[in-house]
TrEMBL record:
SMART domains: Asparaginase. SUPFAM superfamilies: GatD N-terminal domain-like, Glutaminase/Asparaginase. This is Glutamyl-tRNA(Gln) amidotransferase subunit D. The gene is gatD. Heterodimer of GatD and GatE. Its EC number is 6.3.5.-. PROSITE patterns: ASN_GLN_ASE_1, ASN_GLN_ASE_2, ASN_GLN_ASE_3. It comes from Halorubrum salinarum. Residues 83-265 form the L-asparaginase N-terminal domain.
Protein backbone atom coordinates (compact mmCIF):
# COMPACT_ATOMS: atom_id res chain seq x y z
CA UNK A 1 0.00 0.00 0.00
CA UNK A 2 1.60 3.24 -1.20
CA UNK A 3 0.52 6.87 -1.61
CA UNK A 4 -1.31 7.10 -4.93
CA UNK A 5 -3.07 3.75 -4.54
CA UNK A 6 -6.85 3.67 -4.60
CA UNK A 7 -7.97 2.13 -1.32
CA UNK A 8 -11.17 1.11 0.42
CA UNK A 9 -11.03 1.83 4.15
CA UNK A 10 -13.56 0.44 6.64
CA UNK A 11 -13.73 1.55 10.24
CA UNK A 12 -16.62 1.32 12.69
CA UNK A 13 -19.05 0.25 10.01
CA UNK A 14 -18.23 3.22 7.78
CA UNK A 15 -16.53 2.63 4.42
CA UNK A 16 -14.60 5.31 2.52
CA UNK A 17 -12.92 4.87 -0.84
CA UNK A 18 -10.38 7.16 -2.43
CA UNK A 19 -6.71 7.81 -3.12
CA UNK A 20 -4.22 7.26 -0.33
CA UNK A 21 -2.22 10.40 0.47
CA UNK A 22 1.04 10.83 2.38
CA UNK A 23 0.51 11.36 6.12
CA UNK A 24 2.63 13.34 8.54
CA UNK A 25 1.96 10.75 11.27
CA UNK A 26 2.37 6.98 11.32
CA UNK A 27 -0.88 6.52 13.23
CA UNK A 28 -3.32 7.81 10.62
CA UNK A 29 -4.25 7.08 7.03
CA UNK A 30 -5.21 10.07 4.89
CA UNK A 31 -7.58 9.39 1.99
CA UNK A 32 -8.62 11.84 -0.73
CA UNK A 33 -12.29 11.11 -1.42
CA UNK A 34 -13.79 11.41 -4.90
CA UNK A 35 -15.63 14.58 -3.86
CA UNK A 36 -12.31 16.28 -3.13
CA UNK A 37 -12.33 16.23 0.65
CA UNK A 38 -9.76 14.43 2.79
CA UNK A 39 -10.54 12.01 5.59
CA UNK A 40 -8.19 10.76 8.30
CA UNK A 41 -8.64 7.29 9.76
CA UNK A 42 -6.93 5.59 12.70
CA UNK A 43 -4.61 3.07 11.07
CA UNK A 44 -4.85 0.34 13.72
CA UNK A 45 -8.66 0.42 13.87
CA UNK A 46 -9.18 0.27 10.09
CA UNK A 47 -9.44 -2.52 7.56
CA UNK A 48 -7.78 -1.42 4.31
CA UNK A 49 -8.12 -2.96 0.86
CA UNK A 50 -6.06 -1.79 -2.11
CA UNK A 51 -8.53 -1.45 -4.98
CA UNK A 52 -6.01 -0.33 -7.59
CA UNK A 53 -2.32 0.45 -7.40
CA UNK A 54 -0.74 3.68 -8.61
CA UNK A 55 -3.86 5.42 -9.91
CA UNK A 56 -2.42 8.83 -9.02
CA UNK A 57 1.08 10.25 -8.97
CA UNK A 58 1.44 11.65 -5.49
CA UNK A 59 4.43 13.63 -4.30
CA UNK A 60 6.21 11.82 -1.46
CA UNK A 61 5.69 13.02 2.06
CA UNK A 62 8.09 15.54 3.49
CA UNK A 63 11.17 14.17 5.13
CA UNK A 64 10.63 13.25 8.75
CA UNK A 65 12.76 13.57 11.84
CA UNK A 66 13.42 10.84 14.41
CA UNK A 67 9.96 11.38 15.90
CA UNK A 68 8.24 10.99 12.53
CA UNK A 69 7.33 14.68 12.27
CA UNK A 70 7.56 16.35 8.87
CA UNK A 71 10.54 18.61 8.31
CA UNK A 72 11.64 21.03 5.60
CA UNK A 73 14.56 23.30 4.92
CA UNK A 74 14.53 26.78 3.44
CA UNK A 75 17.48 27.60 1.20
CA UNK A 76 18.49 31.15 0.25
CA UNK A 77 19.27 32.27 -3.28
CA UNK A 78 21.06 35.60 -3.63
CA UNK A 79 19.25 36.25 -6.92
CA UNK A 80 15.79 36.06 -5.32
CA UNK A 81 13.99 38.84 -3.43
CA UNK A 82 13.29 38.28 0.25
CA UNK A 83 9.69 38.14 1.44
CA UNK A 84 8.85 37.99 5.12
CA UNK A 85 5.89 35.78 6.04
CA UNK A 86 4.29 37.01 9.26
CA UNK A 87 1.56 34.93 10.85
CA UNK A 88 -1.21 36.00 13.20
CA UNK A 89 -3.12 32.72 12.86
CA UNK A 90 -5.91 31.97 10.41
CA UNK A 91 -6.82 29.40 7.82
CA UNK A 92 -4.43 30.08 4.95
CA UNK A 93 -1.49 28.05 6.25
CA UNK A 94 -3.64 25.53 8.09
CA UNK A 95 -3.55 21.79 7.76
CA UNK A 96 -5.90 19.12 9.01
CA UNK A 97 -5.08 17.32 12.23
CA UNK A 98 -6.34 13.88 11.30
CA UNK A 99 -6.24 12.78 14.92
CA UNK A 100 -9.06 15.20 15.81
CA UNK A 101 -10.45 16.08 12.40
CA UNK A 102 -9.95 19.77 13.16
CA UNK A 103 -8.07 22.36 11.14
CA UNK A 104 -4.93 23.62 12.87
CA UNK A 105 -2.93 26.67 11.90
CA UNK A 106 0.75 26.32 10.98
CA UNK A 107 3.01 29.24 11.68
CA UNK A 108 6.66 29.30 10.66
CA UNK A 109 7.98 29.69 7.13
CA UNK A 110 8.69 25.99 6.81
CA UNK A 111 5.11 25.17 7.79
CA UNK A 112 3.76 27.64 5.25
CA UNK A 113 5.88 26.15 2.47
CA UNK A 114 4.68 22.66 3.40
CA UNK A 115 1.07 23.86 3.35
CA UNK A 116 1.56 25.86 0.12
CA UNK A 117 4.51 24.27 -1.76
CA UNK A 118 3.68 26.44 -4.80
CA UNK A 119 5.47 29.29 -3.00
CA UNK A 120 8.85 27.59 -3.31
CA UNK A 121 11.33 29.23 -5.69
CA UNK A 122 9.51 32.58 -5.81
CA UNK A 123 11.49 34.31 -3.08
CA UNK A 124 13.70 33.79 -0.10
CA UNK A 125 11.42 33.54 2.90
CA UNK A 126 11.73 34.55 6.51
CA UNK A 127 8.95 33.56 8.88
CA UNK A 128 7.88 34.86 12.25
CA UNK A 129 4.85 34.53 14.50
CA UNK A 130 3.20 37.59 16.01
CA UNK A 131 0.10 35.82 17.33
CA UNK A 132 -1.64 32.46 17.25
CA UNK A 133 -5.27 33.50 17.48
CA UNK A 134 -8.62 33.32 15.79
CA UNK A 135 -9.03 36.67 14.09
CA UNK A 136 -12.12 37.57 16.12
CA UNK A 137 -9.74 37.71 19.09
CA UNK A 138 -7.57 40.39 17.45
CA UNK A 139 -6.77 43.32 19.75
CA UNK A 140 -5.06 46.73 19.39
CA UNK A 141 -2.05 45.49 21.37
CA UNK A 142 -1.45 42.87 18.68
CA UNK A 143 -1.66 45.56 15.99
CA UNK A 144 1.21 47.32 17.75
CA UNK A 145 3.20 44.09 17.87
CA UNK A 146 2.43 43.47 14.20
CA UNK A 147 3.55 46.96 13.18
CA UNK A 148 6.81 46.49 15.09
CA UNK A 149 7.37 43.09 13.45
CA UNK A 150 6.80 44.47 9.95
CA UNK A 151 9.18 47.36 10.61
CA UNK A 152 11.86 45.00 11.92
CA UNK A 153 11.54 42.73 8.89
CA UNK A 154 11.81 45.60 6.41
CA UNK A 155 14.75 47.13 8.27
CA UNK A 156 16.42 43.70 8.17
CA UNK A 157 16.21 43.71 4.39
CA UNK A 158 12.84 42.24 3.43
CA UNK A 159 11.75 43.37 -0.05
CA UNK A 160 8.11 42.82 0.86
CA UNK A 161 5.95 41.49 3.68
CA UNK A 162 3.01 39.09 3.57
CA UNK A 163 0.79 39.03 6.66
CA UNK A 164 -1.23 35.84 7.00
CA UNK A 165 -4.40 36.69 8.87
CA UNK A 166 -7.85 35.32 9.58
CA UNK A 167 -10.43 36.91 7.32
CA UNK A 168 -13.03 38.03 9.87
CA UNK A 169 -11.06 41.05 11.13
CA UNK A 170 -8.44 41.38 8.40
CA UNK A 171 -9.87 44.72 7.26
CA UNK A 172 -9.33 46.22 10.72
CA UNK A 173 -5.73 45.04 10.93
CA UNK A 174 -4.96 46.25 7.41
CA UNK A 175 -6.42 49.65 8.32
CA UNK A 176 -4.38 49.81 11.50
CA UNK A 177 -1.08 49.16 9.73
CA UNK A 178 -2.02 51.63 6.98
CA UNK A 179 -2.08 54.39 9.60
CA UNK A 180 0.75 53.11 11.78
CA UNK A 181 3.39 52.47 9.12
CA UNK A 182 5.07 54.47 6.40
CA UNK A 183 6.60 51.48 4.67
CA UNK A 184 8.87 51.75 1.63
CA UNK A 185 7.92 48.22 0.51
CA UNK A 186 4.61 46.37 0.01
CA UNK A 187 2.75 45.01 3.03
CA UNK A 188 0.19 42.50 1.77
CA UNK A 189 -2.47 40.89 3.94
CA UNK A 190 -3.94 37.62 2.77
CA UNK A 191 -6.00 34.79 4.15
CA UNK A 192 -8.19 31.91 3.18
CA UNK A 193 -11.94 31.48 3.36
CA UNK A 194 -11.66 27.70 3.05
CA UNK A 195 -9.06 25.34 4.50
CA UNK A 196 -6.60 23.33 2.46
CA UNK A 197 -8.49 20.03 2.78
CA UNK A 198 -11.50 21.42 0.91
CA UNK A 199 -11.63 21.02 -2.87
CA UNK A 200 -12.57 24.68 -3.21
CA UNK A 201 -9.77 25.96 -0.98
CA UNK A 202 -8.43 29.39 -1.90
CA UNK A 203 -5.22 29.17 0.12
CA UNK A 204 -2.81 28.42 -2.74
CA UNK A 205 -4.04 31.10 -5.12
CA UNK A 206 -4.25 33.79 -2.44
CA UNK A 207 -0.79 32.97 -1.11
CA UNK A 208 0.87 32.92 -4.53
CA UNK A 209 -0.75 36.20 -5.56
CA UNK A 210 0.13 37.81 -2.23
CA UNK A 211 3.80 36.87 -2.53
CA UNK A 212 3.95 38.18 -6.11
CA UNK A 213 2.22 41.40 -5.00
CA UNK A 214 4.79 41.73 -2.21
CA UNK A 215 7.59 41.49 -4.82
CA UNK A 216 6.05 44.09 -7.15
CA UNK A 217 6.99 47.74 -7.56
CA UNK A 218 4.76 49.60 -5.10
CA UNK A 219 4.56 50.43 -1.40
CA UNK A 220 0.89 49.90 -0.63
CA UNK A 221 -0.68 48.18 2.36
CA UNK A 222 -3.07 45.79 0.62
CA UNK A 223 -5.53 42.98 1.15
CA UNK A 224 -5.08 40.28 -1.50
CA UNK A 225 -8.01 37.87 -1.91
CA UNK A 226 -10.03 36.22 -4.70
CA UNK A 227 -11.45 38.74 -7.17
CA UNK A 228 -14.33 36.48 -8.25
CA UNK A 229 -15.76 32.99 -7.84
CA UNK A 230 -13.25 31.47 -10.27
CA UNK A 231 -9.55 30.77 -9.78
CA UNK A 232 -8.36 33.35 -12.29
CA UNK A 233 -7.44 36.53 -10.42
CA UNK A 234 -6.96 38.12 -7.02
CA UNK A 235 -8.08 41.63 -6.18
CA UNK A 236 -5.64 44.01 -4.51
CA UNK A 237 -7.63 46.19 -2.12
CA UNK A 238 -6.22 49.22 -0.33
CA UNK A 239 -6.18 48.39 3.37
CA UNK A 240 -8.35 51.34 4.40
CA UNK A 241 -11.05 50.89 1.75
CA UNK A 242 -11.77 47.16 1.95
CA UNK A 243 -14.65 45.36 3.61
CA UNK A 244 -15.55 41.68 4.02
CA UNK A 245 -19.02 41.54 2.47
CA UNK A 246 -19.79 37.82 2.54
CA UNK A 247 -19.42 35.22 5.26
CA UNK A 248 -18.08 32.36 3.16
CA UNK A 249 -17.56 33.20 -0.52
CA UNK A 250 -13.98 33.18 -1.70
CA UNK A 251 -14.48 36.65 -3.21
CA UNK A 252 -15.87 37.99 0.05
CA UNK A 253 -13.70 41.13 0.09
CA UNK A 254 -14.60 44.26 -1.87
CA UNK A 255 -13.27 47.76 -2.21
CA UNK A 256 -16.24 49.89 -1.19
CA UNK A 257 -17.28 52.62 -3.60
CA UNK A 258 -14.76 51.84 -6.34
CA UNK A 259 -12.93 49.12 -8.22
CA UNK A 260 -10.05 47.46 -6.36
CA UNK A 261 -6.75 49.31 -6.46
CA UNK A 262 -5.46 46.54 -8.72
CA UNK A 263 -6.00 42.99 -9.97
CA UNK A 264 -3.34 40.30 -10.24
CA UNK A 265 -3.75 37.59 -12.84
CA UNK A 266 -3.23 34.22 -11.18
CA UNK A 267 -1.92 32.47 -14.28
CA UNK A 268 0.69 35.16 -14.86
CA UNK A 269 1.53 35.31 -11.15
CA UNK A 270 1.93 31.52 -10.98
CA UNK A 271 4.35 31.64 -13.92
CA UNK A 272 6.26 34.64 -12.57
CA UNK A 273 8.39 32.59 -10.18
CA UNK A 274 11.71 34.28 -9.50
CA UNK A 275 11.24 36.94 -12.19
CA UNK A 276 10.41 40.19 -10.44
CA UNK A 277 9.50 41.93 -13.69
CA UNK A 278 6.96 39.19 -14.37
CA UNK A 279 5.39 39.89 -10.99
CA UNK A 280 4.76 43.49 -12.02
CA UNK A 281 3.44 42.40 -15.40
CA UNK A 282 0.87 40.19 -13.69
CA UNK A 283 -0.75 43.23 -12.01
CA UNK A 284 -3.18 45.59 -13.69
CA UNK A 285 -3.51 48.74 -11.59
CA UNK A 286 -6.82 50.59 -11.70
CA UNK A 287 -5.24 53.59 -9.99
CA UNK A 288 -1.64 54.64 -9.52
CA UNK A 289 -0.20 52.89 -6.44
CA UNK A 290 2.23 54.40 -3.98
CA UNK A 291 5.79 53.95 -5.29
CA UNK A 292 8.45 51.98 -3.48
CA UNK A 293 10.63 54.11 -1.26
CA UNK A 294 14.19 55.02 -2.18
CA UNK A 295 15.49 53.86 1.19
CA UNK A 296 13.89 50.45 1.54
CA UNK A 297 15.46 49.81 4.93
CA UNK A 298 13.80 52.71 6.72
CA UNK A 299 10.23 52.48 8.05
CA UNK A 300 8.26 55.28 9.64
CA UNK A 301 6.38 53.91 12.66
CA UNK A 302 3.68 55.66 14.70
CA UNK A 303 2.08 52.73 16.46
CA UNK A 304 0.50 54.33 19.53
CA UNK A 305 -3.24 53.74 19.79
CA UNK A 306 -5.91 55.08 22.13
CA UNK A 307 -7.99 52.05 23.02
CA UNK A 308 -10.77 54.11 24.62
CA UNK A 309 -12.81 54.37 21.41
CA UNK A 310 -16.16 52.76 20.62
CA UNK A 311 -18.12 52.17 17.42
CA UNK A 312 -21.88 52.40 17.97
CA UNK A 313 -24.65 51.71 15.48
CA UNK A 314 -27.83 53.77 15.64
CA UNK A 315 -31.08 51.84 15.17
CA UNK A 316 -34.70 53.04 15.33
CA UNK A 317 -36.11 52.72 18.83
CA UNK A 318 -32.72 52.88 20.50
CA UNK A 319 -32.96 53.98 24.13
CA UNK A 320 -30.73 57.01 24.84
CA UNK A 321 -29.81 55.31 28.12
CA UNK A 322 -28.06 52.62 26.05
CA UNK A 323 -25.38 55.22 25.38
CA UNK A 324 -24.58 55.79 29.05
CA UNK A 325 -21.57 53.47 28.79
CA UNK A 326 -20.01 55.97 26.37
CA UNK A 327 -19.59 58.60 29.09
CA UNK A 328 -15.95 59.54 29.46
CA UNK A 329 -14.79 57.77 26.30
CA UNK A 330 -12.02 59.49 24.40
CA UNK A 331 -13.68 58.79 21.07
CA UNK A 332 -16.94 57.49 19.60
CA UNK A 333 -17.69 56.62 15.99
CA UNK A 334 -21.39 56.58 15.14
CA UNK A 335 -22.85 54.55 12.29
CA UNK A 336 -25.77 56.77 11.39
CA UNK A 337 -28.48 56.22 8.83
CA UNK A 338 -28.26 57.61 5.30
CA UNK A 339 -26.28 60.82 5.15
CA UNK A 340 -25.36 60.45 8.81
CA UNK A 341 -28.39 60.71 11.06
CA UNK A 342 -29.65 59.55 14.44
CA UNK A 343 -32.97 60.06 16.22
CA UNK A 344 -33.49 63.66 17.30
CA UNK A 345 -33.79 62.57 20.93
CA UNK A 346 -30.19 61.30 20.83
CA UNK A 347 -28.66 64.61 19.79
CA UNK A 348 -28.57 66.09 23.33
CA UNK A 349 -26.89 62.88 24.49
CA UNK A 350 -24.23 63.29 21.79
CA UNK A 351 -23.77 66.97 22.69
CA UNK A 352 -23.09 65.94 26.29
CA UNK A 353 -20.38 63.56 25.10
CA UNK A 354 -18.70 66.27 23.02
CA UNK A 355 -18.87 68.79 25.87
CA UNK A 356 -17.26 66.18 28.09
CA UNK A 357 -14.26 65.97 25.75
CA UNK A 358 -15.22 62.99 23.59
CA UNK A 359 -14.46 63.19 19.87
CA UNK A 360 -17.62 61.99 18.10
CA UNK A 361 -17.29 61.14 14.41
CA UNK A 362 -20.21 60.33 12.12
CA UNK A 363 -20.15 57.60 9.47
CA UNK A 364 -22.94 55.95 7.50
CA UNK A 365 -24.48 52.49 7.62
CA UNK A 366 -24.78 52.62 3.83
CA UNK A 367 -22.21 50.57 1.95
CA UNK A 368 -21.32 53.44 -0.37
CA UNK A 369 -21.57 57.22 -0.38
CA UNK A 370 -20.45 59.85 2.07
CA UNK A 371 -21.82 61.54 5.16
CA UNK A 372 -23.28 64.99 4.61
CA UNK A 373 -25.01 66.51 7.61
CA UNK A 374 -25.86 69.78 5.91
CA UNK A 375 -28.93 68.55 4.02
CA UNK A 376 -31.51 67.90 6.75
CA UNK A 377 -32.29 69.59 10.06
CA UNK A 378 -31.10 66.56 12.05
CA UNK A 379 -27.70 66.69 10.38
CA UNK A 380 -27.30 70.41 11.00
CA UNK A 381 -28.23 69.87 14.64
CA UNK A 382 -25.59 67.15 14.89
CA UNK A 383 -22.98 69.53 13.50
CA UNK A 384 -24.05 72.15 16.01
CA UNK A 385 -23.64 69.50 18.71
CA UNK A 386 -19.99 69.10 17.68
CA UNK A 387 -20.11 65.94 15.59
CA UNK A 388 -17.26 65.51 13.08
CA UNK A 389 -18.13 64.28 9.59
CA UNK A 390 -15.96 61.33 8.50
CA UNK A 391 -16.94 61.58 4.83
CA UNK A 392 -17.00 58.19 3.13
CA UNK A 393 -14.61 56.55 5.59
CA UNK A 394 -15.83 53.04 6.37
CA UNK A 395 -17.12 52.71 9.96
CA UNK A 396 -14.57 50.07 10.97
CA UNK A 397 -11.75 52.05 9.40
CA UNK A 398 -13.03 55.19 11.13
CA UNK A 399 -12.78 53.50 14.52
CA UNK A 400 -9.19 52.43 13.87
CA UNK A 401 -8.35 55.89 12.49
CA UNK A 402 -9.79 57.65 15.55
CA UNK A 403 -7.83 55.33 17.87
CA UNK A 404 -4.70 56.27 15.97
CA UNK A 405 -5.46 59.98 15.60
CA UNK A 406 -6.16 60.43 19.32
CA UNK A 407 -2.73 59.01 20.11
CA UNK A 408 -0.71 60.63 17.33
CA UNK A 409 -2.32 63.91 16.25
CA UNK A 410 -2.74 67.14 18.23
CA UNK A 411 -6.17 67.74 16.67
CA UNK A 412 -7.80 64.32 16.18
CA UNK A 413 -11.17 65.83 15.27
CA UNK A 414 -9.58 67.72 12.38
CA UNK A 415 -7.72 64.56 11.30
CA UNK A 416 -10.98 62.62 11.05
CA UNK A 417 -12.14 64.93 8.27
CA UNK A 418 -8.90 64.62 6.29
CA UNK A 419 -7.49 61.77 4.22
CA UNK A 420 -4.43 60.21 5.88
CA UNK A 421 -4.01 56.76 4.29
CA UNK A 422 -6.39 56.53 1.36
CA UNK A 423 -9.40 56.00 3.62
CA UNK A 424 -11.26 59.17 2.63
CA UNK A 425 -11.92 60.00 -1.01
CA UNK A 426 -11.97 63.58 -2.18
CA UNK A 427 -15.41 65.15 -2.13
CA UNK A 428 -16.69 66.22 -5.53
CA UNK A 429 -17.91 69.81 -5.49
CA UNK A 430 -19.92 71.65 -8.14
CA UNK A 431 -18.25 74.49 -10.00
CA UNK A 432 -18.85 77.81 -8.32
Amino acid sequence: MQPGDRVRVERGGVTNEGVLLPSTTRDHLVVKLDGGYNVGVDREAADVEVVESGVREVDPAAETDDDGDATSEITFDEDLPTVSLISTGGTIASTVDYRTGAVTAQFDAEDVLRAVPELAGRANYRGRVVANILSENMEPSIWRDLAAAVAEEVEAGADGVVVMHGTDTMQYSASALSFMLDSPVPVVFTGSQRSADRPSSDNVMNAVCAVEAAKADHAETLVCMHAGPSDDACALHRGTRVRKNHTSRRDAFETVGAAPLGVIDYGAAAEAGADGDAADAAIEWNREPLPRGDDEGTVGVESDLDGDVELVKFTPGMDPAAWDYLDGKDGVVVEGTGLGHVHTDLIPRIEELVEGGTVVAMTSQCLAGRVCDRVYDTGRDLLDAGVVEAGDTLPGTAKVKLMWALANRSDPAEAMGRDLAGELTEESRPWR
